[in-house]
């Protein structure tokens, strides 16, 4: 099936490419199939020379022999899966029936749906139809499922439920019970769980709900209705209805829904806690549970979202489907897995680790595969949380974040200080002054073009900020203007950001004393309860002084605006903000502001509550507000600058060294060499380094075959322990110079934080992670740029508010992250994320970069759950830059069929710069190009493939606007080489425009006066460049029309002056020289040269080459001669002197005499026969 799907995609590609030659199609087939298929193809016999034969041979090789009885058996075993619709079942059956060779496949699919659909009501409904076709079966099934969903919703609403069933963790139960007899008006219904009439089984109000059977000891029914033949032995641990602290139980929550609580219950046999044995919901339960479809690898799987499960579970049928689509190997596990409320462990086949994604979120998770054939699959609490599948109730707080009674205390604080938790505040009695470097000249940058489709959303956001008093329109001139960038949010809204990189060069950062880590940790010693407060839109709560606002000016389509509050992106904001908050909290016990958070602590709960109350009271007095959703209250531990602070004391954070300790074993000599590079960097602090590392160093020799054994493993483990020990690592010191070393490999990112303390550079922390599937498709430059952003945000706590140096072995980053550069859209979004940091990028050779090993041996199980913000931004730009009436799918399809754009695509992803002439226009702007979903972007503009360039021009010219406005419209959204010329050509050929446009009568030519003598006035210009990359320097004498020509490999002013001195040494200096406004001729160096030679320099009218027609006409003739020689395969440099001799000897049309005769007063001899006569120089 995979081969047939691939061939189908290949046929689509061939049809789109327009290639009709069968041999060429065959070559493309083998090229795209890859080297492995090519090796197989070489072994096949009678493959012919055309495409059809090649496909037939490969198909017979890849497709196994059909076993019709077996295929029909599989077809008959197909049943409707849980959560699968009738329409989805029909599609699955249609794929399977292709291999069964039934005479009437539609009837077989219809019969299979009737026999194996999961709903007996639907089956009866289908059997009532006298003439039932497959189409009618699917239509009835679709209507039936829709009515079932709607009826369930109506019935659920009629119960007037107030709480939905959620899974949570609590400290104790608050269960309630109902009377045995529940009258519901349905006395004819008998519950088989309790034996009473009036309700169905599994009703939340059933008295047997959560109760234990005295006969079989199972949950959910009474002994009088138990179906167990013999009583089972009771487990040694207490059942889920007990009232012990560590128990598993259910709690009723009204008339509908339930909350499931999972605690660390001991194992029935071993007594171990849930750290070794895991509990999950009972597999195969029939209750209605929340579902979600996630991607495991590249395969979609429907899972029950279970907040009470501590692991992820797959049944073996689901695992078999995943394994068929991606190579997954099960590993043995000692984990014991218990169904909810059961003492019997499940049969486990093994476990595996895979990448899981849901919408824009990605994480790595471990799955347990159980032996149950089709019992259902569960998504555990941690993975579901990482994928954003839980939205907790506003009154729900995890037990690890709320101490007993804190919920009530918090409600008291919210009631007591309502202003602190409402809206965006403003600090009272302060207008912040920013300090500027007056020597830096102001820069008014051009505005970034915002697509028309999102301008309304941008204006709405600006109106909102203006209403809140955060921005205001600019009145009068402004020396500083920065560009505005619109960035998408996950909810579909947009965020407006200002690129302040150039403005920051004029802002002087303030230096306020920062307490050392030792001082702060000393204050936290003995504390047992902690809270972390987050100020809402922190910077926006500090008002800017009117004199400091102009530097924040930014341009929009509606004019200029400036910020009235401190804004994200101002380089001095972190230090200023920390100092201001520190002054506000001064004098309060048990509080520290750390970076952009406020930490409140206390030795007892009462002391912590008192300190927290004082802090919130001080914030209200100051006019500041908090973001309640991002605050943590009453936690028992927190991480602070690489230390774990808790009631037990202060301990180092193991995450700082996890990237080294958990690094995988190298698989080749290159990875060993990279690891030794990091070890050598720290070798001065490692005792006996040479001896310990010697076994690994031997593996890097070319003469040593690769063989990893226990000696190498011991050396590897020893070095890892030494590199993460106290002799190598150092504690972070805010006053010491800080360095961030980053690197990116094809598979991962690495970062290493170091500091120079007392003249010695030591590591502070290591970090690494693998690249996602999308990130691995980035170009190498984009991967290296991503490593910078990830490293800064990974070590945000250490780097925020201080100056540091980033070391990278990718030199283009020095230019790309320069504030004056306009990077591609994806890197532009990353540059905005780097605005809070103050750093400089410095290049170092790869051999000197110790972070190299961290990217080559990344941690395989690091969660990667952050949204791909850069890709969202690029997608946002692409979707809003498409010309009207043209879709992204059209552009993507045409781009795939465009050979030039496909070569550009390869160059971008590989980082190469070819020199082919047809790619040269793209390579001149290669730093602005990026790829997104098969579409190439130049900055924020789409590069249009050749086949769509004419339709794009026609779309832009609808309404018959003029040349200037048509170009302005196109430049906002699209680009391709020569777009301006194409617009000029199209409009010049547009008959309605020409018919209605104004008539332009050319002005009569004003003939220049002929000089009285040769070499008096010279016309100078450049001709070329030619295919070899060289150009010609051309001078033409206005009197005699004598041409002087020099070949140039460089067209700089210095080169031109050197060649002119050579020409003037032969013929002397002229009186006057005429040139166009090229940069070489208008440079100060060229003007100074002519002035020193006493030559008058006359520039022609800009953009009017006819004023220099004397040399322009010669350029046309000489250029034709050079191209003709090149076309004939001759050396044009050798042919040029021959052309010049013939030109100088030929009478000129304007004088009637040859240039040589006027210049020298005689005719020159050529290869043509002639009779010498007296020359007439006076003519």
TrEMBL record:
<dbReference type="InterPro" id="IPR021109">
    <property type="entry name" value="Peptidase_aspartic_dom_sf"/>
</dbReference>
<dbReference type="InterPro" id="IPR050951">
    <property type="entry name" value="Retrovirus_Pol_polyprotein"/>
</dbReference>
<dbReference type="InterPro" id="IPR001584">
    <property type="entry name" value="Integrase_cat-core"/>
</dbReference>
<dbReference type="Pfam" id="PF00078">
    <property type="entry name" value="RVT_1"/>
</dbReference>
<dbReference type="InterPro" id="IPR000477">
    <property type="entry name" value="RT_dom"/>
</dbReference>
<dbReference type="InterPro" id="IPR036397">
    <property type="entry name" value="RNaseH_sf"/>
</dbReference>
<keyword id="KW-0255">Endonuclease</keyword>
<dbReference type="InterPro" id="IPR001878">
    <property type="entry name" value="Znf_CCHC"/>
</dbReference>
<keyword id="KW-0548">Nucleotidyltransferase</keyword>
<dbReference type="InterPro" id="IPR041588">
    <property type="entry name" value="Integrase_H2C2"/>
</dbReference>
<dbReference type="Pfam" id="PF17921">
    <property type="entry name" value="Integrase_H2C2"/>
</dbReference>
<keyword id="KW-0540">Nuclease</keyword>
<dbReference type="InterPro" id="IPR043128">
    <property type="entry name" value="Rev_trsase/Diguanyl_cyclase"/>
</dbReference>
<dbReference type="InterPro" id="IPR001969">
    <property type="entry name" value="Aspartic_peptidase_AS"/>
</dbReference>
<dbReference type="Pfam" id="PF00665">
    <property type="entry name" value="rve"/>
</dbReference>
<keyword id="KW-0808">Transferase</keyword>
<dbReference type="InterPro" id="IPR012337">
    <property type="entry name" value="RNaseH-like_sf"/>
</dbReference>
<dbReference type="GO" id="GO:0008270">
    <property type="term" value="F:zinc ion binding"/>
</dbReference>
<dbReference type="Pfam" id="PF17917">
    <property type="entry name" value="RT_RNaseH"/>
</dbReference>
<dbReference type="GO" id="GO:0003676">
    <property type="term" value="F:nucleic acid binding"/>
</dbReference>
<dbReference type="InterPro" id="IPR043502">
    <property type="entry name" value="DNA/RNA_pol_sf"/>
</dbReference>
<keyword id="KW-0695">RNA-directed DNA polymerase</keyword>
<dbReference type="GO" id="GO:0015074">
    <property type="term" value="P:DNA integration"/>
</dbReference>
<dbReference type="InterPro" id="IPR036875">
    <property type="entry name" value="Znf_CCHC_sf"/>
</dbReference>
<dbReference type="InterPro" id="IPR041373">
    <property type="entry name" value="RT_RNaseH"/>
</dbReference>
<dbReference type="GO" id="GO:0004519">
    <property type="term" value="F:endonuclease activity"/>
</dbReference>
<dbReference type="GO" id="GO:0004190">
    <property type="term" value="F:aspartic-type endopeptidase activity"/>
</dbReference>
<keyword id="KW-0378">Hydrolase</keyword>
<dbReference type="GO" id="GO:0006508">
    <property type="term" value="P:proteolysis"/>
</dbReference>
<dbReference type="GO" id="GO:0003964">
    <property type="term" value="F:RNA-directed DNA polymerase activity"/>
</dbReference>
<protein>
    <recommendedName>
        <fullName>RNA-directed DNA polymerase</fullName>
        <ecNumber>2.7.7.49</ecNumber>
    </recommendedName>
</protein>
